[in-house]
Specification:
This protein has five helices and twelve strands. It has about 220 residues and is α+β, with helices and mostly antiparallel strands. It has one domain. The strands form two sheets. Strands 1, 2, 4, 5, 6, 7, 9 and 10 form an eight-stranded antiparallel beta sheet that branches. It has a four-stranded antiparallel beta sheet with strand order 3-12-11-8, with no helix packed on it. Strand 11 and strand 12 form a beta hairpin. The model has no long low-confidence stretch (mean pLDDT about 85). It holds the Pfam family PEP-CTERM. This is PEP-CTERM sorting domain-containing protein.
Length: about 220
């Protein structure tokens, strides 16, 4: 998906929400935040009613689906607060796990719920159905260093993985998106962008002094 999507899930089923936030919008300087209460959305009540198991939540957006070039693959996701430091995985595993397995599940889920009738739809899919997000999503089928799920009530950084070179076994690049965070409290999904720096009081003083000096010069020239 080239738009950020939100997933709640456990071994009974999963809830999916399309946020409508694209990769470019998320990374743009104008992005401030995304906030959405999910309790009244299609599929959420079905998810809550069906489960007594611990729930994981996660966000992800990927770009480059369908390309044959590893270096055009891009994934931004949450990262488990209980996991080890994010690690790279080889390009081929990255492509198959993210753009193959997870992509297939996402496409199936997008044919359920309100995804077909709304721009930013939602759905519930039980375990065993094609639209169910299982372990292939939560850890990309790999080690703890690539886990994307967090417990409800915890916050997460956003990390970015990009394919490198054209070699299948080369490692992906991994970095943290500076200033970004995400959270889910059981009702509301929040993605916070970088907070713009506020000038120090001394900066305002210097600016005021500079403007005063310019005004003084202008007045002298007019005199």
């Amino acid at each position: 998906m080239s738009e950020l999507f939100f997933v709640l899930g456990n071994d009974k089923g999963s809830f999916l929400l399309d946020t409508g936030v694209t990769v470019n919008a998320l990374k743009s300087a104008s992005f401030t935040s995304y906030v959405q209460n999910v309790t009244n959305l299609a599929g959420f009540s079905s998810y809550v009613a069906s489960t007594t198991q611990p729930t994981l939540w996660g966000l992800a957006v990927y770009d480059g689906a369908g390309t044959a070039n590893y270096n055009q693959l891009d994934l931004i996701s949450t990262f488990s607060s209980t996991a080890a430091t994010p690690v790279g995985i080889n390009n081929n595993t990255f492509k198959n796990g993210t753009f193959g397995i997870t992509g297939s599940v996402a496409l199936s889920a997008n044919n359920t719920g309100t995804h077909l009738t709304m721009a930013n739809g939602s759905s519930y899919n039980a375990v065993g159905t094609a639209g169910y997000f299982g372990s292939s999503f939560w850890n990309l089928g790999q080690s703890s260093g690539v886990q994307v799920g967090n417990a409800v009530g915890t916050s997460s950084v956003l990390i970015e993985r990009t394919g490198t070179t054209s070699t299948a076994l080369s490692q992906t690049a991994v970095s943290t998106l500076t200033g970004y965070s995400a959270s889910f409290d059981g009702a509301t999904v929040t993605v916070q962008g970088p907070v713009a720096a506020v000038p120090e009081p001394s900066s305002y003083a210097m600016l005021a002094a500079g403007l005063a000096a310019v005004g003084f010069v202008v007045r002298r020239r007019r005199a």
